[in-house]
Amino acid sequence: MIFEFKHSMKKKNKILITIDGIRKDRVGCYNKNKEYLTPNLTKIANESIVMNDMMACGTSTAMCFSSLFTGQYQKKFNRKRYGDNENPFSKNIFTDLEQQGYKTFICLNRRFNHCFNLINTLGRNTKIWWTGYKSRSKNLGSLRPKEQINYIIDELKTVNSPFFIWVHLWGFSQPQNKFRKISSSDYEARTAELDDAIGIAFEKFKKNSELFFLSDHGYAFFENDKWAYGKDGNNLAESVTTIPAIIYNGKEKGYNNNLVSQIQFRKIIYESKKALEI
Fold first, then answer.
1. 31-81 residue pLDDT tens
2. Using CA atoms, how far apart are residues 221 and 237, in angstroms rounded to an integer?
3. CA dist., res. 12 & res. 248, Å (int)
4. pTM (predicted TM-score)
5. Which candidate, 268, 244, 238, 262, places its Cα nearest to that of 63?
6. Beta-bridge mates of residue 256
7. 53 CB burial (10 A radius; 0-12, 13-18, 19+)
8. What are the backbone angles phi and psi of residue 67, rounded to the nearest 5°?
9. What burial letters (b/e) apply to 93-119, b meaning 16+ CB within 10 Å?
10. Which one, of 196, 195, 233, lies nearest residue 217 by Cα?
């Protein structure tokens, strides 16, 4: 896979914000009945390229991200079972952007450490910012989405452009009470809390950055008698395998109605306008 850049062009920062396990039908640009849950993503979508039919590369977080970053399907990783972290691919989004002069960063909550080891993909000089502390409880130890965004805002103040950062926002099983007022569903209140953090990030970085918003995978509410997503790879409900994906570059906007795999994100991040035609 070869990518060409025009070195004379001023490079914008590239910010990848992933939102854990958010269904496509809970985002306003895909479902008008849910605009009240995601006012920020809905607004951003109106100024962006919206992928109408992007498919996840797997049904677990580790599978999705390792494929997304390398541009390779999971079957090529030679992983035999959940827990394997074999990765034969040395090149990925981080290494390629480093070759183009980008500083690369990752910001994750510490409870995500095990999953990150399974993803097993980063650049040669990537700096990792770990936040929070390890905990067996899903509701303890992690920064909330807004806190996570404010953390990277502070850290990036001293970083010279251009940079690429991946930050993964994880929604709490117990959302803050103000978001429960938006919806009595914990899942939907969690979605609203994630959207609130995304709005802060967008307003802060939109002037000099390209921003990419997408889920790792979706979520099942007993479609095909399945719940959640699935480490065994057999939860192939549409609500799990289709994901929201929104690309903002300050110029192009519109909808891409083609069937697009998550592995093609590696191309999109180099030249975001291609998201309209890929």
1. 999 999 999 999 999 999 999 999 988 878 888 899 999 999 988 988 877
2. 9
3. 12
4. 0.91
5. 262
6. 51
7. middle
8. -75, -40
9. bbbbbbeeebbbbbbbbbbbeebbebb
10. 233
Cα 261 from Cα 278, distance rounded (Å) = 10
169 DSSP β-pair partners = 19
Strand 127-131 and strand 103-109: pairing? Answer: parallel
For residue 18, give the H/E element and its range: strand 13-19
d(CA 238, CA 219): 9
Per-residue pLDDT, averaged over 130-159, amounts to 86
SS3 at position 123: coil
pLDDT at 235 over 70: no
| Cα–Cα dist 198/16, whole Å | 11
Q: Provide CB contacts within 8 A for 60, sequence distance 6+.
A: 82, 217, 229, 230, 231, 233
Give dist(CA 105, CA 22) in Å, integer: 23
DSSP string, 36-97: TT-HHHHHHHHTSEEEEEEE-S-SSHHHHHHHHHHT--GGGGT--SBTB--------HHHHH
Q: Which residues contact 88 (CB under 8 A, 6 or more apart)?
A: 76, 77, 78
Phi, psi of 157 (to 5 degrees): -60, -30
- What lies within 8 Å, CB to CB, of 51 at 6+ separation is 214, 244, 245, 246, 247, 256, 260, 275
Q: Tell me, what DSSP letter sits at residue 245?
A: E
